[in-house]
């Protein structure tokens, strides 16, 4: 298999500050280094990995067209992608953090109790799944 890992996903937004605040304050990611890319944005890290790239919609779209890589038209929510999932730890602490940030979470627990899930939506309509496995509680 030539693929080795998921590198990142890109969230295109009209509100950089709200998006950054959601991922950093509600989900605990951190803002990290980002090269000068020719459009406003930020990279959000989990540990040492910049797993979410955020770009401002209008300038990113223009930049992409200039490079011959046009962005697909805006779609409500995430278009054909339903959600992005992360492994997580400390279920109750995460629930409390989300509540403090005013983020509503939908809960889903597996019948055997080995997996607990929280689903949240970022300011751009991207659904995020947080998975808490029995050993990570």
Measured by DSSP, the beta-strand proportion falls in 25-35%
Q: What class, by secondary structure content?
A: alpha/beta
Number of helices: 3
User: Can you tell me the overall shape?
Assistant: globular
Task: Give the domain tally.
Answer: 1
Task: Order the strands across the largest sheet as they lie in space.
Answer: 1-4-3-2
User: Radius of gyration from the CA trace?
Assistant: 16 Å
Instruction: Spell out the helices and strands N to C.
Output: EHEEEHEHEEE
The CATH superfamily bears the name: 2,3-Dihydroxybiphenyl 1,2-Dioxygenase, domain 1
What does it look like?
- With 137 residues, the chain is α/β, with parallel strands linked by helices.
- Helices cover 23% and strands 33% of the residues.
- The protein has 3 helices and 8 strands.
- It has a 4-stranded mixed β-sheet.
- The longest helix has 11 residues, at 16-26.
């Amino acid at each position: 298999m030539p693929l080795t890992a998921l590198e990142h996903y890109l969230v295109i937004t009209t509100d950089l500050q709200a998006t950054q605040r959601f991922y950093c304050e509600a989900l605990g990611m951190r803002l990290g280094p980002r090269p000068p890319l020719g459009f406003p944005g930020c990279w959000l890290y989990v540990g040492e990995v910049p797993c979410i790239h955020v770009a401002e919609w209008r300038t990113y779209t223009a930049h992409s067209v200039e490079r011959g890589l046009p962005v697909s038209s805006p779609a409500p929510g995430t278009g054909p992608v339903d959600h992005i999932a992360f492994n997580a730890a400390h279920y109750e602490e995460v629930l409390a953090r989300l509540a403090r940030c005013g983020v509503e979470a939908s809960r889903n627990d597996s019948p055997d109790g080995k997996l607990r899930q929280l689903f949240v939506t970022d300011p751009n309509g991207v659904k995020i799944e947080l998975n808490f496995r029995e050993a990570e509680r």
